[in-house]
Design a protein that fits this description.
By secondary structure, this protein is an alpha/beta fold. The chain contains 21 helices and ten strands. The strands form two sheets. A six-stranded mixed β-sheet has the order 6-7-8-3-9-10, sandwiched between helices. Strands 2-1-4-5 form a four-stranded antiparallel β-sheet, with helices on one face. The model has no long low-confidence stretch (mean pLDDT 81).
Length: 577
Amino acid sequence: MIKILKNFFAFCGERYRKKFYASIVLTFLQALFEALKIPAIWVMVKALIEDNVTGKTCLTCLGIMFVSVAGSGFIKTKATMLQTEGGYGTCAMKRMEIAEHLRYLPMGYYNANSLGRIMSVTTNTMQNLENVATRVVMIVCSGLLTTAVITVMVIAFDWRIGLLLCVGLVIFFAVNSSMMKASAAMSKQKVEKDSALVSRVIEYIQGISEVRAYRLTGSQSRELNKAIDENENANSSMELRLIPFMTVQSFILKAVGTLITLLSVLLYIGGTMELITCIIMIISSYIIYAQLDAAGKYSALLRTVDVCVRQAQDILETPQMDIDGENAVPASCDISAENIGFAYEECKIIDGISLDIPEKTTTAIVGPSGGGKTTLVNLLSRFWDVDEGRVTLGGRDVRDYSMDALMRNYSFVFQRVYLFHDTIANNIRFGQPDAPMEAVIEAAKKACCHDFISALPEGYDTVIGEGGASLSGGEKQRISIARAIMKDSPIIVLDEATANVDPENEAELMQAVEALTKEKTIIMIAHRLKTVRDADRILVVDRGRIVQQGTHDELMAQEGIYRGFIQGRQKAVSWKL
């Protein structure tokens, strides 16, 4: 229990850990005020036994009780506020810390780890810590400290009752330890099933078109239903497994309280305990374990807190790419790769590629699906780090730049565009959040999207759905180009940016691409003849190697993949219905 609390406090960071430590000190003071009830009762019982109840006695008893209740209530409020601020503040800080950490993880991390798991950690896990951890830490600490203070006070009254009380605590904590062990494995399973459920729900929603088209609803959606059932079973099993332990804990506390009453009466009858002490012990037996009973029941949730902390730490401890280079400006935008290699797990993706891309030239990368085109571009722009060789920008290894300094030189337009749930204006100025509206409109005009934006009911203030769901594919693509124009980086990476655009939008999209790429260094992955043939250089990538390179005319004069690729496209264009 103590180890889990220490891990949690370490996770909180210095700022919020101090709030928890301060709240524990206040909780100890609260326990002292709670313990004042016993002296208050002692004053009144003593006066009753001696038949000496006076106004002064009543005022003394009332005064001590008032100090106990008022002091306890006031300090509990302060302690609760500190613990609440600590819990919610910690989770807000960790969410931002995780988001910042994710920015600099290699892209391969997202292949190995499902979106559902990452989202579960930042939502479910953090919410568990916000709601459960704060309450559990408060109740457990309060229960332990209050019981400790009252135990010391009981020992001061009579060591024999104090000894019985300590024996009861030992038995209680032995059962509690068993409950914590039982909770350990089940808490891990519960959190894993929560993550799996989030993952399946996201998968189901993202694939809702296929779900409807293939009628994968109700009982047909087996994976989702299975995740729901397993989540329900994990939560129910945990509750059912822990209930017997909680019942035994409560029984022990009540049994020891009964034994304290019985022993006190026997000691009084035997003449070894004064009547007043006997009465105080009997009354105390009903309040000694009140706080500990609640702490014992909630302590089972400490394992869930521990698992949640470990899940968040797993992400934060995932090694980032080396991002601590210099905040340098490259001497030029020449890009080179020197015998680079890259493998994903055991599979070699890029195998000994060397190339040079002079600045302000256009390089097209083509080749069979799965040949390594996108991976090569990711390595050139340092979305991943090479396993062998090196990539340079301006003659300098890209790993020598800080990540932010390096990314200032690149703008990206991907085949699959992601727009944020925000206004169109804010999506365009994403790379420059303080840019004036005039600059936003100018970028939109260059990207050929000003007209359709202006036709919307709220124009540039129109809030688009998450992922740009309320816009067509061509509209989203043009907004992403406007965003890249806004950033105005010297190197443009186009990853099949025009692959899925319908014919009526193609002319405007190509015009937008031309505005974006003017006087820039261009690296493009493309399958369309129009976007490939005018490139200064074409690289044909297959099985992780460059198997052909040259201009369009040079490659058409050779036997190989490129000529077959172009001839296949030309035949497809000539087909008539």
